[in-house]
Each structure stands twice: as C-alpha cells, then as structure tokens.
C-alpha cells in the first residue's frame, strides 16, 4: 500500500503547493512511484507549478463523479518518469468532493503507487478536511510568522481528531513540520520568528527548512518544481527534506546567518 | 485524583484519599503528664490502642520547643503510632521531620485548604482531608499540547495538562488548572464559582486568566510576570498573580 501524505497548513500562501510539487518530484527522483493530487477544487494551481496545465483533460472531480477513469485523469510528468499528477477542477467547488469518492480514488492509486501526496487547500473546511482525512503522515507547512504558526497549530489539532486514523483509534497521523520562506537575516533582526520558537510552540518533528529564495518564485512561474534546480539553496533544502521523509538523518542547513566573506561580497557571490 | 498509567509493570500509583484519623490534641507538653493520662485511658478502652495512627496536634501549645521524641515514645509504649504533627513553630516542624513524621500546617480553615500550603508529602502521612476533597473526584489529566481551537475541560474537578496550552486554545475546570508547560491560551478555573480554585503554570503567556468569573486579559498582566512560573488565585475578589520561582 502506498503511503498517503497530506501537505497542509491552514493558512494560505505559505507554500503548500510549491512544497507538494517539490517533494513529490524529489520522491520520484529518488525512485519512488509517486502521485500528487490537487485537492484545491475551484482554485487549482498544482498543474501550473508542475508545468502541466496544458495537458489537463479530466480532473479529480470527474473521476469521483464517474465521468472519467482514473487513468484518463492522471497526467504523467514530462521530466520524471514515475511521477503523476491528478489535477483539481477549476470550474467546480469543494462540495463536489465526497468522502467515499476520495477514499475510492486513494484506494485505487494505493495499489500502483509508493507515495500519494495530497495538496490541501487553505482553510479548515471541507476541502482541507477531506485532503487530510485518509492521511498516514502530514507535512505541516509553516512560515516564520505568528499567524502562520497559529493556523498550523489549529491544523495539528484537526489532524489529531478529524482523520480516519484518529476516528478509528489507530496510530496517530505522523506529523512533520516544514518551515518555508525562512530568512536567517530577518530572523536575526527579529522580523521573523526563529526556528526554536516555532518548534517549541508546535512541538512536532522538523522535517525540513526551506530558505526564502528567488529560485522558488522563478520555479513557480516556469512550472518547473524547484527540486530540479539543484544549484539553488531551496532545491537542495527540498531534497534534504525528501531524504528525511525517506528515513535518512541529514543535518539541518540554511538556518544560520551566513557571514559573507569580503571576497564574495566584492564579487557578489552567494547561494542563489 | 489518581495518576493511572496502563502499564502492567507499574510498582505503585499515587492516590489522594480521605482516611479517618485520630488527632491527639495536646494541652500539655510534659511527657510524664501525658503518660499518666494515657495509662488511664488504656485501662478504660484497650480496644482503641491497637497501633492506632494519630496526628499529634500542638496548636494549643505555646512552647517553641517540644520534647517531641519523648512524647512519641510515650505514645508508642501505649500502642499509639504518631504519624504526623500538626501546628507548632519551625523547630517543631524540623524535629517532626527528623523523627520521620509528617508535618501539617495549623488547621485554620482557608489556609490549610489553599494549595500553596499543601503539607509536605511524607510516605505514611495521609493528606489533610480538606486539601484533597475537591480533587478527589472528577479531575482530569490531559497529556500533550492543547492546540489552537481545541477546548479541554474538567467540568467536575481539577485539570492537569502535561504539556503546553497554545494560543487560541481554551482550558476550563470546575476546580484548579495546572499546566506543566507554557500557558499561551485561555484558562478558566472555578467555572462553577469555586473561589478557592487557582491556575498554576510553568510559563505564563495566557490570553485570558479567569477564576470564578474574575478575569484578567493578557494586557492586564504585569509584563514582568510573562514567561515565568506563576500561580493565580483570588484574593479579596481580585485575581492575584504571583511568581512561583
């Protein structure tokens, strides 16, 4: 059976879809058969980030409502062989998703894939709850700011009560903290919450820290997940995250202020 | 309240309990006088003196120093087992501990009941009945972080949280609230009007503190107390926050 991982946050705009795309790509690059599902019905974005928006014919809602087969809706990634995307519908709303329908899709995909990533919509309503309901693990994406941390805290409460594992009294959903848009300079100036404060409040394991990086925005707009940009700090940080997800112990990077040497300052070098 | 853990290999559990206890109220500190009187009692009702545990109350005595060891010896020869001493000045307390006895504060009502005055725990000494009465039933222990949007309540007793209460979370109890972690959310103790209830936490960051309907918002809290370990109790219908450190 595949491992079902939900990428969620509560708050919008913190980097759920970017992270879902980057991590799915990383898992596939590491040889795992992976599918990433966009649960944000009505505000579909994953296809853009994955660069497959021109190849969408059928979507998740079509499959759930029996208008298309799963294989018709799955889009094969152009760059990585064992990566597939199941897009959301842009013309429907979240009420088009049913719990039974989602379960059936996940069960079917579970037979073929190693990893199923569910890209959750923002908020705590139906769409977000359906995205997390069947999860085995959760990646909670958090920015270093108080509102994001509080919303992540709220989501962690839901993961502990509103999931199939919680309702059946099984082992709880394994929760991972992914901090994105971390800017060590601004943390140092006190503009952003620091890593330790976030970890203390949320009290879950840190799976990765993604530095704020121009590479992320560039990747989003080009429709190439940032994981492919292995020269970038963000790309490397996502690859580290994937390794930790696969059970490896990797030291944390990019969380400390880099003191630039005189030479690199003169020649404008740096990790970008 | 009992601390139960589902483990077969547990050697013991701590339980609060109310046990009948004979208090021996001393009107004299003279061991010889006590011996005479006890001998008389022993002949009258020998059934009573069966290694009966007693608490020696010295509240009525004014002497700062007592021949506690001799008094205890007299008791034991008459088959009374002193287990604790109640009242008396500091030297009395020290000599009670030295003899392996528990010590209870004087029984002047409210003082004995408040939690800061809870008697030191001694292996054999049963706790003061008043001190455990509210916690004996309906209490609740919650393990883990209480997260934003969650509400944890103990409608009939005390609430103990082994973890933090995060911003946006709410904890409520009919009795007192104890948070072994940071308290960042809202805490409402004494929700049925128990003015003896209190709030105790390791790190104060609370959005709202309330005891029996008397509340303070984060804005009303002395900033110096933020982040420290505190107790919150009602004093003259005012919420008082004092550091526990």
Automatic annotation (TrEMBL), chain A:
Transmembrane segments: none annotated. InterPro entries: AAA_dom, MinD, MinD_FleN, P-loop_NTPase, ParA/MinD_ATPase. The keyword ATP-binding applies. Interacts with MinC and FtsZ. It holds the Pfam family AAA_31. Keywords: ATP-binding, Cell cycle, Cell division, Nucleotide-binding, Septation. ATPase required for the correct placement of the division site. Cell division inhibitors MinC and MinD act in concert to form an inhibitor capable of blocking formation of the polar Z ring septums. Rapidly oscillates between the poles of the cell to destabilize FtsZ filaments that have formed before they mature into polar Z rings. This is Septum site-determining protein MinD. The gene is minD. The keyword Aminoacyl-tRNA synthetase does not apply. Residues 2-150 form the AAA domain. It comes from Billgrantia bachuensis. The lineage of its organism: Bacteria, Pseudomonadati, Pseudomonadota, Gammaproteobacteria, Oceanospirillales. SUPFAM superfamilies: P-loop containing nucleoside triphosphate hydrolases. Signal peptide: none annotated. Belongs to the ParA family. MinD subfamily.
Automatic annotation (TrEMBL), chain B:
Residues 12-82 form the Septum formation inhibitor MinC N-terminal domain. Residues 119-137 have a biased composition (Low complexity). Transmembrane segments: none annotated. Keywords: Cell cycle, Cell division, Septation. Residues 119-139 are annotated as: Disordered. Cell division inhibitor that blocks the formation of polar Z ring septums. Rapidly oscillates between the poles of the cell to destabilize FtsZ filaments that have formed before they mature into polar Z rings. Prevents FtsZ polymerization. This is Probable septum site-determining protein MinC. It comes from Billgrantia bachuensis.
């Amino acid at each position: 059976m595949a491992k079902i991982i939900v990428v969620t946050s509560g708050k919008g705009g913190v980097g759920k879809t970017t992270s879902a795309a980057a991590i799915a790509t990383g898992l596939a690059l590491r040889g795992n058969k992976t599918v990433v599902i966009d649960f944000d019905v009505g505000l579909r974005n994953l296809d853009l980030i994955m660069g497959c928006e021109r190849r969408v014919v059928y979507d998740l809602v079509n499959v759930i409502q029996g208008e298309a087969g799963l294989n018709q809706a799955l889009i094969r990634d152009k760059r990585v062989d064992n990566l597939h995307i199941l897009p959301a519908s842009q013309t429907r709303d979240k009420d088009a998703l049913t719990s039974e329908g989602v379960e059936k899709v996940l069960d079917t995909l579970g037979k073929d894939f190693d990893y199923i990533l569910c890209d959750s919509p923002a908020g705590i309503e139906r769409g977000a709850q359906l995205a997390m309901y069947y999860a085995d693990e959760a990646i909670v994406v958090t920015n270093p700011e108080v509102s994001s941390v509080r919303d992540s805290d709220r989501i962690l409460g839901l993961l502990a009560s509103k999931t199939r594992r919680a309702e059946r009294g099984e082992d709880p959903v394994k929760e991972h903290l992914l901090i994105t848009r971390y800017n060590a300079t601004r943390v140092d100036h006190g503009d952003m919450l620091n890593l330790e404060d976030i970890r203390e409040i949320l009290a879950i394991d840190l799976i990765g820290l993604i530095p704020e990086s121009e590479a992320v925005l560039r990747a989003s707009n080009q429709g190439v997940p940032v994981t492919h940009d292995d020269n970038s700090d963000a790309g490397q940080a996502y690859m580290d995250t994937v390794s930790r997800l696969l059970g490896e112990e990797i030291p944390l990077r990019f969380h400390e202020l880099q003191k630039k040497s005189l030479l690199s300052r003169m020649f404008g070098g740096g990790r970008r | 309240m009992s601390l139960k853990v589902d483990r077969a290999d547990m050697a013991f559990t701590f339980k609060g309990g109310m046990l009948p206890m004979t208090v021996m109220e001393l009107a004299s500190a003279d061991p010889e006088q006590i011996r005479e009187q006890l001998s008389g009692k022993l002949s009258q009702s020998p059934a009573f003196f069966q290694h009966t545990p007693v608490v020696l109350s010295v509240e009525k005595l004014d002497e700062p120093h007592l021949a506690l060891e001799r008094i205890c010896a007299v008791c034991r020869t008459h088959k009374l087992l002193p287990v604790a001493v109640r009242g008396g000045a500091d030297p009395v307390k020290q000599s009670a501990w030295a003899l392996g006895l528990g010590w209870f504060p004087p029984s002047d009502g409210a003082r004995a009941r408040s939690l800061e005055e809870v008697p030191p725990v001694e292996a054999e000494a049963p706790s003061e009945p008043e001190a455990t009465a509210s916690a004996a039933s309906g209490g609740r222990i919650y393990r883990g972080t209480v997260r934003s949007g969650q509400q944890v309540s103990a409608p009939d007793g005390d609430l103990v949280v082994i973890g933090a209460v995060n911003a946006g979370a709410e904890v409520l109890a009919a009795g007192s609230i104890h948070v072994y972690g940071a308290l960042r959310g809202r805490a409402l103790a004494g929700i049925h009007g128990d003015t003896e209830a209190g709030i105790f936490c390791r790190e104060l960051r609370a959005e709202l503190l309330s005891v029996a309907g008397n509340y303070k918002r984060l804005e009303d809290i002395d900033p110096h107390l933020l982040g420290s370990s505190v107790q919150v109790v009602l004093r003259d219908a005012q919420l008082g926050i004092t550091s526990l450190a």
